[in-house]
Write a structure and sequence with these properties.
The protein has seven helices and seven strands. It is α/β, with parallel strands linked by helices. The structure holds nicotinamide-adenine-dinucleotide. Keywords: Oxidoreductase.
């Protein structure tokens, strides 16, 4: 475990499988002040209570990432409580209803772009406003998906929203490099979470076969977040880091 000043990290979707695993990993790396945000306060509490302890302070916030004002308020609360914001992880997302494009509804396109895409826009906007004022900038990490890089049939709104997250990441990286803010995204393949729990049994063999290393767990993905949050990635910005058990390789 590293010592030194605490790193202030805000994570959205922190009650979910990946968000909670990232929080655990960053807490294990050294002193951390974690601001854990999710739609569900009830599911955040058990995550927070297992993390709080020597070297780890935790603030929880119920935040809907589709609401720009709520995301701004969460970032303001982080700064008020911990004095700065070092790492912003825009991780909240929702899966699209399965269906080919002609069966997708306007509501589903809207839902995906409001949460999965605009959630990352709101988080990036709120974070850069703070990080630009910090001498050593900060690191923004968006959770994208291989579905934003490759054609993933039957979930077009989700894939399109994730592709938009990747593009947002790259443009933000270029716009804010001079202000020492690095912006990267992680593109996971399929791993176990509430989001993937409903995959029908008959679809699992085919999906597994498309991941040469098999399906993943959240812990298989967190190393990319640890790298992008830390000093080893000081010369990495605008990257879409693929962590997918080989899904996107063929
Ligand atoms: N599970 C996978 O196979 C997979 C693959 C690639 C990318 N991802 C991405 O990983 C991220 C985390 O997903 P997960 O797999 O841990 O799923 P999860 O369902 O366990 O976690 C998602 C969390 O986001 C929260 N959330 C949903 N809408 C929100 C909103 N409007 N505001 C705030 N919080 C909201 C949920 O309450 C939940 O706790 C998502 O962005 C997802 O798209 C997941």
């Amino acid at each position: 475990m590293e010592s030194g000043p605490s790193r202030v990290v805000l994570i959205t979707g922190a009650a979910g499988a990946l968000g909670a695993a990232v929080a655990r990993r960053l807490a294990s790396e050294g002193p951390a002040d974690l601001v854990l945000c999710d739609l569900s306060g009830e599911r955040l509490e058990p995550v927070a209570s297992t993390l709080e302890g020597p070297g780890t302070r935790v603030l929880t916030r119920v935040v809907d990432v589709s609401d720009a004002a709520a995301v701004d308020a969460a970032v303001a609360a982080a700064v008020e409580r911990f004095g700065r914001l070092d790492v912003m992880i825009n991780n909240a997302g929702v899966i699209a209803t399965n269906g080919r494009i002609h069966n997708q509804t306007a509501q589903e396109w809207d839902r995906q772009f409001r949460i999965t895409f605009l959630g990352a826009v709101h988080g990036t906007t709120a974070a850069v406003r703070v990080m630009r004022t910090q001498e050593d900038g900060g690191s923004i990490i968006n959770t994208a998906s291989v579905a934003g890089l490759t054609a993933w049939p039957y979930t077009a709104p989700y894939g399109a929203a994730k592709a938009a997250v990747i593009q947002l990441t790259k443009v933000a990286a270029v716009e804010y490099a001079k202000e020492r803010i690095r912006v990267n995204c992680v593109c996971p393949g399929t791993f176990e979470s509430a989001m993937t729990a409903d995959i029908p049994d008959e679809a699992l063999p085919g999906l597994t076969a498309r991941h040469p290393l098999g399906l993943g767990a959240p812990e298989d993905v967190v190393g990319a977040f640890a790298y992008l949050a830390g000093a080893d990635s000081r010369w990495t910005t605008g990257s879409a880091m693929v962590v997918d058990g080989g899904y996107a390789a063929p």
